[in-house]
Amino acid sequence: MAVKTHFGIDFIINEDEIYLDSATVGRLPQSSVSVMSDFYSNYGGGISRGTHKIAINASRTLEKSRLIIGNIFSVDKSHVSFLPSRETAMLNALFSQGFDKESEIIASSLDDHSVITPLLNLNKFCGTQLNFTGIEEEIDLVSSIQAKIDSKTKAIVLSSLTLGMGVQRDWRSLSQLAIDNELLFILDISNGVGHASYNFDKISPHIIISSGDIGALGPHGSAFQIISDGIEKEFNPVLIGGGAVVSVNDSDYRLSSAPNKYEPGSLNIASISGLANSLQLLSNVGFEKIKKHEQDLRKILNDGLKNINKIDIVEKDGLSYGPVISFFSEDIDAHDIAIILEDLANIYVRSGALCSHLFMDELERESLVQVSTHLYNTKEDIITLLETLESIMLEI
Fold first, then answer.
1. Whether 293 and 201 share a structural domain
2. pLDDT for res 262
3. Taking the model in full, what pTM does it have?
4. CA 290 to CA 303: how far, in whole Å?
5. Residue 1: its pLDDT value, please?
6. Contact 164, 314 (CB under 8 A)
7. What's 235's domain CATH number?
8. Which stretches of the chain score pLDDT less than 70?
9. What is the DSSP letter of 128?
10. Range of 135's domain?
């Protein structure tokens, strides 16, 4: 596999490929693969599995990764914990809060399955009621949510960047709304992390969850959560085992203190170290620099798509957008567009329901084409995409 260098980072992307599907899985920096390989070559152990040097080195690797991520988000490392996936983290958080049939959670139809299906599971097993906002309410989301809050409302669960439409939300204002109304706020930053700055030192959601392999450009099998001050006593994890357990008797058990008590089973230390390396590389470039780069790409892409006949962009005036654009054509299926782009020019985009069926139902569509960028994409990538797409549409 060849590498492509951008912003001083070597990415595992062939020179003849244009990868525009980062909202699904980001491309790994080559050095993150090396970090993981080094761990297996030199240590390969697990934490809390002995006093020998292999176990100790694994624990040191984990704590180094925890410190790196804590520093990037301006939180103490004791608030950072690791899980196998954001879905695992979301389920663990939701089912640990004691919600019942008298509870209501406010969420959004714009969010993807990894946010919504754990909520639906909570409704199925605990009877917890769900109150969804829609596309129209995104214009003033804070006011829309405020209007929905009543005595039964216990939590707000949202993503910072929606997958289907690419809406960038004001998580700070949403955090303040939750604080003012004494509600739990769970925020999934998987799609936005790595693209913009997230500083949680002054105001923060109560529970922050992120996949490691999307915006963070880490490997599969890695995710992290950040728990804010004051929430630990109310967060008793239902997923327990392994190094999270201190002692067990025939009627009870005792867990370790935070953050280890949130980390059940055998952690994938190699993947966690790769994730930390990727986030550190992005931080070294500068998140504001990355954001500016992607805003420039989005403008070129958005302007270009508007000039191509038979293409409609999924957007709404008055909203802020991140590095995700979805579009469709009434004249050709979304999957066909994606296949032809790959066949003609090795351009990789996503097509389909985008793991966002509630959103698609609201649009009354079955599929979209999605283009999502990261810092390894260039102006030339976008121009090639637009030129190829225009040639496709001229043939229809």
1. no
2. 93
3. 0.96
4. 20
5. 59
6. yes
7. 3.40.640.10
8. 1, 48-49
9. -
10. 78-265
